[in-house]
């Protein structure tokens, strides 16, 4: 049984926290609900205490006791900002500031509030401190608008809590892990480049999960659209050549996770300065970049685990990824179908197929943090194999 602190903030989605409380208690956990005064405008504290099977206590500091996981669901824009600033003006924010360990937050708010730069900066701050964000989801909102802002479903939050509890910190202690993330940009001139849509979210999630499990993590960051997680060594690798150089310099890592979208081609010649705009067409010759995965595969040792990632489309793309296993001498190939708009690039979710010599396994659509946990579970299995 784990001890879980469940913070509930003052949004209409507070009613969903009742179901989340019930699910966590049913799973056998000791749940301490911490509703804010705003949350109690929607659901009373007595309701949460009844669902958690707890009685009011005279102890003024139960919220400061050790917890295995801290969850805030729903997380309003207001409390999100407080957490980013480190404020402690109620029992929830006090407990959050004192907590050490896995922290899961499920934002819920109006779409425009979620998309506001201030909110996104606060989200990036939380992520940089190791707080995992689940959701929000797209759909109809309480005020009648349709967009991103719905709290993740209680079942999904409860499932992620179980995953956080199932992978104890320290399971990768003593291991060195190299993660590549983002998309490389190959310069055409001093302003323009050939690139791709990769945000780096998948690689960042892998780095965060590996760090949580105790590994020493180096992240080769290629133009990330999200903040790198706290506690990892970050090396900027904006181009394919930069990534190749830094990856080869660290090829003796115990595990290499090649999640970055490395450009397959780059301009054969880079123009110095900016090419002026004109009515004349511009023909650009492209040359292939080095296949870094193949290069690392050729240099791998028997004790090392190499994981290649493949963004392809449909069954034909999956077949090409199957060929990578032997063709590039890697231990695991992670395939995701970028023809789907609900996963992959520009999305907080993913769905992947794990391909190894032992067979294939589909990891159904879930947050990229959950997908990262599944991938590292498979890596741990491969490390333990003869």
Architecture overview:
Helices cover 33% and strands 25% of the residues. The chain has 2 domains: 3-166, Rossmann fold; 176-384, Rossmann fold. The two termini are 33 Å apart. The chain has 386 residues and is α/β, with parallel strands linked by helices. It has an 8-stranded mixed β-sheet, sandwiched between helices. It has a 5-stranded parallel β-sheet with strand order 2-1-3-4-5, sandwiched between helices. The chain has a two-stranded antiparallel sheet with strand order 6-7. Strand 1, helix 1 (14-26) and strand 2 (30-35) form a beta-alpha-beta unit. Helix 1 (14-26) crosses helix 7 (154-166), helix 3 (77-85) packs across helix 6 (117-128) and helix 8 crosses helix 12.
Largest sheet: 8 strands, mixed
Q: Helix tally?
A: 12
When the domains are counted, the total is 2
Helix residue percentage: 25-40%
The termini sit apart by 33 Å
In the CATH scheme, what's the topology name of the largest domain? Rossmann fold
Q: Which structural class matches the secondary elements? A: alpha/beta
What is the CATH architecture descriptor of the largest domain? 3-Layer(aba) Sandwich
Mean pLDDT across residues: 88
Strand content: 25-35%
At the fourth level of CATH, the homologous superfamily of the largest domain is CoaB-like
Over the alpha carbons, how many angstroms does the gyration radius reach?
23 Å
How would you write the strand order of the largest sheet? 12-11-8-13-16-17-18-19
Stretches where pLDDT is under 50 for at least 5 consecutive residues are none
Number of DSSP strand runs? 19
| General form | globular
| CATH domain class of the largest domain | Alpha Beta
């Amino acid at each position: 049984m784990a001890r879980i602190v469940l913070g509930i903030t003052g949004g209409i989605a507070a009613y969903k926290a009742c179901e989340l409380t019930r699910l966590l208690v049913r799973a056998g956990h000791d749940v301490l609900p911490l509703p804010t005064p705003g949350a109690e405008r929607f659901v009373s504290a007595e309701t949460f205490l009844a669902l958690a099977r707890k009685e009011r206590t005279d102890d003024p500091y139960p919220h400061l006791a050790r917890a295995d996981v801290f969850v805030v669901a729903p997380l309003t824009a207001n409390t999100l900002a407080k957490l980013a600033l480190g404020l402690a003006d109620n029992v929830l924010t006090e407990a959050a500031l004192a907590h050490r360990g896995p922290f899961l937050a499920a934002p819920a708010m109006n779409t425009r509030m979620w998309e506001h730069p201030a909110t996104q900066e606060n989200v990036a701050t939380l992520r940089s401190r190791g707080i995992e964000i689940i959701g929000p989801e797209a759909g109809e909102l309480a005020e009648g608008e349709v967009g991103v802002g719905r709290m993740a479903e209680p079942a999904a939050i409860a499932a992620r809590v179980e995953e956080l509890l199932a992978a104890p910190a320290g399971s990768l202690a003593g291991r060195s892990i190299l993660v590549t993330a983002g998309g490389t940009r190959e310069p055409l001139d001093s302003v323009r480049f050939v690139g791709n849509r990769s945000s780096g979210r998948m690689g960042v999630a892998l780095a965060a999960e590996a760090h949580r499990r105790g590994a020493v993590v180096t992240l080769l960051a290629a133009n990330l659209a999200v903040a790198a997680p706290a506690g990892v060594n970050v090396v900027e690798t904006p181009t394919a050549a930069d990534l190749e150089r830094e990856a080869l310099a660290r090829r003796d890592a115990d595990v290499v996770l090649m999640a970055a979208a490395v450009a397959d081609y780059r301009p054969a010649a880079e123009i110095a300065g900016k090419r002026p705009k004109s009515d004349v067409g511009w023909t650009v010759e492209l040359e292939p970049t080095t296949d870094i995965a193949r290069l690392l595969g050729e240099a791998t040792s028997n004790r090392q685990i190499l994981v290649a990632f493949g963004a392809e489309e449909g069954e034909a793309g999956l077949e090409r990824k199957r060929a990578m296993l032997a063709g590039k001498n890697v231990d695991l190939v992670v395939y995701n179908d970028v023809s789907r708009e609900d996963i992959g690039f520009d999305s907080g979710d993913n769905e992947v197929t794990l391909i190894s010599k032992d067979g294939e396994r589909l990891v159904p659509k879930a947050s990229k943090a959950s997908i990262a946990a599944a991938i590292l579970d498979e890596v741990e299995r491969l490390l333990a194999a003869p």
